[in-house]
Amino acid sequence: MSKFIELTVSTTHIGGELISDVLWGYTDLGVVISDIEDVIALSRDGRAWDYADESIFNADKTVLVKAYFPIDSATETLKSVETAFINLKKDSPLDLGTLETVKREIDGDLWREQWKEHFKPIKIGKVVIVPEWIDYKSKDGEIKVLLDSNMAFGTGEHETTSMCVDFLAKYVKQEDTVLDVGCGSGILGITASKLGANKVVMTDIDECAIVATEHNMKLNGVTNGTALLKNLLDDNTVKGNVIVCNIMAEVLIAFAPHIGKNLFDNGYIILSGILVERLSAVKQAYLDAGFSFVEEKIKGEWSALVMQRGN
Description:
Layout: E1 3-11, H1 15-24, E2 31-34, H2 36-45, E3 63-70, H3 74-91, E4 101-107, H4 110-114, E5 122-124, E6 127-131, E7 143-147, H5 159-171, E8 177-181, H6 187-194, E9 199-204, H7 207-220, E10 225-229, E11 240-246, H8 249-255, E12 263-275, H9 279-288, E13 291-299, E14 302-309
Parallel strand pairs: 6-7, 8-9, 8-11, 9-10, 11-12
Antiparallel strand pairs: 1-3, 1-4, 2-3, 5-6, 12-14, 13-14
């Protein structure tokens, strides 16, 4: 029977996905986030259980991120993971918690399937994000987007992703070209294609993201999309009617003076991945760059913006 090392990392609600992204860089065997805040959010907005024990609202809010590694290579791999955590905590302005780690040896391959139980179809307006191994029958008017959650990057659960999907459904028109900058799993670009975009270009500077995006495009039968390993700002020949960027606020601010060259006149830019306290700074950066404000959304600690480029 095969043996594996399970690594558990203690972090915060904000840090959960960042730690998950780091771990996906070192394993393809599975990463799971256990976050009581997700249960609380579902309970409060009525999207899930009819009843939740009130004690959860006072429970320990520590987020646990678990990842799995082959035992024969785990020692060296986990040294690299620890170094990555040290660098992340040093460079990130966010509260990532203790990043305390616990390791244990486990037997068998059952966990390979058990982690999939954490992923369920996620309905965002008329769009439903569905793990590819679940046989989900679309209801009238629903747009199904298949996602292999065994690949790295976003699954649609995070507030920043869901706000982007909401805005894409509102602003994408059938004749549009949509650019997904920092595409990760390709979820936003693929959603834009399913919403009727004429052409989708997805870019990322991480080769793993491009592999994930191409894989998910095939799952969804998307033939009008292209995944490019590049920084979009290096190529002003790629232009879109809608640009969507789900990236941290500091990067969005750095993009502001330059990204307009990739946007057609009167085009929209959807900006997400913004902590609420950074919202005004991001908005001001784009106003200073000549964009006009259209609307914003806030979900929990996160926010998203829509800005428009004039003639």
